[in-house]
Each structure stands twice: as C-alpha cells, then as structure tokens.
Amino acid sequence: MAPALVDIHPEDTQLEENEERTMIDPTSREDPKFKELVKVLLDWINDVLAEERIIVKQLEEDLYDGQVLQKLLEKLAHCKLNVAEVTQSEIGQKQKLQTVLEAVQDLLRPHGWPLRWNVDSIHGKNLVSILHLLVSLAMHFRAPIHLPEHVTVQVVVVRKREGLLHSSHISEELTTTTELMMGRFERDAFDTLFDHAPDKLNLVKKSLITFVNKHLNKLNLEVTDLETQFADGVYLVLLLGLLEDYFVPLHNFYLTPDSFDQKVHNVAFAFELMLDGGLKKPKARPEDVVNLDLKSTLRVLYTLFTKYKDVE
C-alpha cells in the first residue's frame, strides 16, 4: 500500500521512523539546463582553485567535508579561515564546515539573501543545497561565468511513517534571470564604450586620470592606473575629501587595508560620502571596484568628474 517511489536506491530506504531524505528526481538530473549549471559551477571552482592544484570532479562528493569550500572561500574573499587543515572525523568535518558556512553567512547577510543550506544538508551531500550555496557565492563575487537562467529541479522527499515510505515532490528554483541574480543595471554609455569604441574609452580614461591627479597631487599622490589604484578605496575616500574640502577622520576608514573586507569597507564608505554630497548611488557595487572591475571603477569616477570637473 506504500505510495509509488521514484528510483530510490536501497541505501536511501534505510530510514528511521519519521526520518526524511531528499533527492533530485532522475528526470531533473538529465535536464540539459541542470547539467549545464553543474558544469559551469564545476569549471568555475576548478578555475579559481587551479593554483591550489585542486580538481573537483563531483560537487557532492568533493565539497561535503568543507575542505574544498574552505579553499574556495579563502581564494574568493582573499581571507584566511581559522580551521584545521585536514579533518578525517565526521565531527571535525562538521566543525570545519560550520566555520566556512558562518563566514559565507557573514558575507551574504547584508544582501538579505535566503540561505538555503546548512551544515547537515551540505555534509549529507545534498546536491540541491550545495548548488544553492555555489550559485549564491557566484552571485556575490560576480563570477565571470554565465549561469543558465530559470533552472528548476524536482526534488523527491521521502519520509518513513509507521514503517512505510511516503514520497512527495517539491519544485526547487536554483537560478532566476541574469539581471536578478547579478543585479545588472540597464546598459549605459560605458557598456557601449567597452563594446564598440575602445579608442574613445582611452580618451575617457586619460581625462579621468588628469581630473583625479589635479586633486590628489595636493597630497603628493599620483594615479597612473585607474583599475588598480582605486581598488582599495583609499584614494577614493581621500579624493572625496579634497573635492568637498573636508578632512576625512582616519578612524572612519582603513588607510592601509590588508584584507578584502577592509577594502570593501573603504569603497562602501566612499559611496556613503558621495550620497552625503548629493550624488546618486553609483551604478556599481563596492565588491566590483575591489575586484578590479574597470567598468565599475570608471562609472564611479565619471560620476565624480561630472559634478566636480570645474572644482579647482
């Protein structure tokens, strides 16, 4: 009399009373968009970790113990997590995983994104949870990859009740649209410059370098590379002080930032100063500027140039 089940492996049916197990419906696993999502994320992880000589072949088998996730997060966030290097025991693995996932949560919490995973689901090799985690990381760090849109999977939930196995299906949305996921803005003049007019782009860069140096030279500072020299936010904060003619207290920002978070803090603080000065919120995220995204940096500087180009 048990309800019909979907291709459940024998080990998956060894459940305690009221225990629940979830698995992806086999038809969803064969969906081309699902396969593409898994492949894109696998290639991205292997690309990020190439220098570590780590090769991930299967997401649920290689990521469940926290070891690879730790290396991935450290590489992406330019940080060092305080965890044991190698942990064989299940308790040790879960402790490491807990530390890694708490660090992820600290990064994602300001965005208000739902966290659709936990230590037990990742350690239990739940592929849906692992994919939710990786998609969120790719979104946060603006990974240079194209995630397939509208990937939804059917998940089979099996529960043992009164000695019988009962199954139900739920639908899980793994990706939405690129605009929603990456927070892309409508195309602007900089998109056009980058795509179609590299010669004009160089003129814009020269004009901006002249503009910022006219003011930063007052502090004996000089910019030659827009992409890298504004990435830690220090020059950006100092430039805003010069343009608005005020001294920025040094305790408000990191004068010598040595971590990704400190650099993001500086750029975000500069954005706040821009808002205080009556400017619109920049069409960029602080993380993009820190990650050396030239287009984002130019957008921020051009916003300043537009308002302050006549300031002596």
TrEMBL record:
Highest taxon of source: Eukaryota
An example molecular function term from Gene Ontology annotations: actin binding
SUPFAM superfamilies: Calponin-homology domain, CH-domain (SSF47576)
GO cellular component: actin cytoskeleton; focal adhesion; lamellipodium; plasma membrane; Z disc
Keywords: Actin-binding, Cell adhesion, Cell junction, Cytoplasm, Cytoskeleton, Repeat
GO biological process, one term: actin cytoskeleton organization
The gene coding this protein: Parvb
SMART domains, sorted: CH
Organism, scientific name: Mus caroli
Protein name per UniProt: Beta-parvin isoform X2
Spans annotated as Disordered: 1-28
Membrane-related topology note: Peripheral membrane protein
Compartments, as annotated in UniProt: Cell junction, Focal adhesion; Cell membrane; Cytoplasm, Cytoskeleton; Cytoplasm, Myofibril, Sarcomere, Z line
Family (UniProt): Belongs to the parvin family.
